[in-house]
Write a structure and sequence with these properties.
The protein is of the alpha/beta class. It has helices spanning 17-28, 30-37, 66-70, 88-97, 107-124, 141-147, 162-174, 178-187, 196-199, 202-216, 235-243, 305-325, 362-372, 400-412, and strands at residues 7-13, 40-47, 62-63, 75-80, 101-104, 128-129, 153-159, 226-227, 246-257, 260-271, 283-290, 294-301, 347-356, 377-383, 390-395, 398-399, 416-425. It has 3 domains: 7-136 and 305-325, Rossmann fold; 141-300, Dihydrodipicolinate Reductase, domain 2, CATH 3.30.360.10; 347-426, ACT domain (Alpha-Beta Plaits), CATH 3.30.70.260. It is built from 14 helices and 17 strands. It binds NADPH dihydro-nicotinamide-adenine-dinucleotide phosphate and L-homoserine (HSE).
Length: 430
């Protein structure tokens, strides 16, 4: 007969922004969580790099020996919130090999080594849960993995990085410089240990890969994602977008076509009336388009200690329930194996901002370059005089190849001093 555990001992790898919140919540809501899980949840070991005091964590359970946590025979559930690829990957694999279920928030790891980790968990008959890895507090993994498993998803799109959305919001609304706002986002606990991952789009790319894999039942890694961050988005770009009634957001998009799966992360101009334009600060939102359900939108806090801890603890209780029941959750599904569409095949509208010479005939000359490359112009915004003369051309939908040829030709044109920026514009109709 199966013995039902009355206590589930938990080991945690990392006790920073997320781990600290998880530990405090486990301590303060222990009785409720136990009632929901069907067993007492006891945090018995926490691995950190240095043994400084942690709020809500007894010194006696802190250790710098992470391996002792994942091999402890009394522990049956590991929470990995240390981040990074190594040693997190090896430690998770060791935990799984030792029969422990794992809850992780580590999107960077899942988007690179997910296949090995899911296979190891499946083989060992344990759970590997990761609701916190994408869009912080927003329940999006479970809806894709379970609620929508009977539907056919065609597209997933949204804002999945809190740090960059916080930065772009402050640049847009308060005209603050990039560097100042990045420091604020770091202080608020939104940014990754190395914020390059946020601002260069790698964090969003990892999340987009995870969402695409789940939505399309295929293996998608971070390397499959065409990725551009926000470091090239200037105050002038933000101001130009504003003067056109638009706002710039870092958008992640995964869609399927006959050619396979395309996944992209890039800054994009949206009309201010677009639902994603209203997603401010560190909030995230994810749209899912499926054949049966139609359009669904998931919205909430995408980063920060307490919101992320909510998702981690949701997984902890779910996994604990499985341990109590002697069962496990659904396996990862990659049966469809759709493959990745060739990069550069997408068709999008673009805003090209360029510094131009201030003399007659410039507009006609520029329009001619677009016409030659078969890129149709939707609108033109002209600003400034003399050295400050600037043109922003918004195109109709064009292929990446035609757009690249246009930009190359503009850069060589006598009337263009410099192509300052090229930003995608949301809008599929024209
Ligand atoms: P932090 O940098 O705040 O915390 C990391 C923790 O891991 C620290 O306690 C650190 O120890 C510990 N640690 C790091 N390396 C080691 C190691 N080699 N051995 C032992 N301990 C180690 O990160 P966050 O809490 O912000 O993020 C953790 C994870 O959660 C990451 O995967 C991140 O991507 C993910 N995440 C974060 C979100 C957020 O809003 N912050 C949201 C969603 C996911 P020490 O304290 O001693 O330095
Ligand atoms: N650095 C991440 C972000 C944390 O800003 O969205 C949440 O995954």
């Amino acid at each position: 007969m199966k013995t039902i555990p009355s206590i589930i001992k938990i080991g945690m790898l990392g006790c920073g922004v997320v781990g600290g919140s998880v530990a405090r919540e486990l301590a303060s809501s222990g009785a409720d969580l136990a009632a929901r899980a069907g067993a007492k949840l006891e945090l018995t070991k926490v691995a950190v790099r240095n043994l400084s005091k942690r709020d809500g964590v007894a010194d006696s359970i802190l250790t710098t020996d992470a391996e002792s946590v994942v091999t402890d025979p009394e522990i049956s559930l590991i929470i990995e919130v240390m981040g990074g690829i190594e040693p997190a990957r090896e430690l998770i694999l060791k935990a799984i090999a030792n029969g422990k279920s794992v809850v992780t928030a580590n999107k960077a790891l899942l988007a690179t080594h997910g296949a090995d980790l899911y296979a190891a968990a499946e083989k060992a008959g344990v759970d590997l849960y990761y609701e916190a890895a994408v869009a912080g507090a927003i329940p999006i993994i479970r809806p894709l993995r379970e609620s929508l498993i009977g539907d056919r998803i065609n597209r997933v799109m949204g804002i999945v990085n809190g740090t960059t959305n916080y930065i772009l919001t402050k640049m847009d609304e308060e005209g603050l410089p990039f560097e100042v706002v990045l420091k604020e986002a770091q202080a608020l606990g939104y940014a990754e240990a190395d914020p390059t991952a946020d601002v260069e789009g790698h964090d969003a790319a990892a999340k987009a890969a995870i969402l695409a894999g789940l939505a399309f039942h295929s293996r998608v890694t971070a390397n499959d994602v065409a990725c551009e961050g926000i470091t090239k988005v200037s105050a002038q770009d933000v101001a130009t977008a504003k003067s056109m009634g638009k706002v710039i957001k870092l958008i992640a998009e995964a869609k399927r076509s006959d050619q396979g799966i395309s996944v992209r992360v890039a800054p994009m101009m949206l009309d201010r009336s677009h639902p994603l334009a209203a997603v401010r600060e560190a909030f995230n939102a994810v749209f899912v388009e499926s054949e049966g359900a139609g359009q669904l939108m998931f919205y909430g806090r995408g980063a920060g200690g307490a919101p992320t801890a909510s998702a981690v603890l949701g997984d902890v209780v779910a996994v604990a329930r499985h341990i109590v029941a002697g069962s496990k959750g659904p396996a990862e599904s990659d049966y469809a194996d759709l493959g990745i569409a060739p990069k550069g095949a997408s068709i999008t509208k673009y805003a090209i901002r360029m510094a131009v010479h201030d003399k007659p005939g410039v507009l006609a000359n520029v329009a001619n370059v677009f016409a030659k490359e078969d890129v149709s112009i939707q609108t033109v915004l002209q600003k400034g005089r003399g050295d400050a003369a600037e043109l922003t051309v918004v195109t109709h939908r064009a292929t990446e190849a035609n757009l690249a040829a246009t930009v190359a030709a503009l850069s060589k044109s006598d009337v263009v001093r410099e192509v300052e920026s090229v930003i995608r514009v949301e809008g599929s109709a024209s």
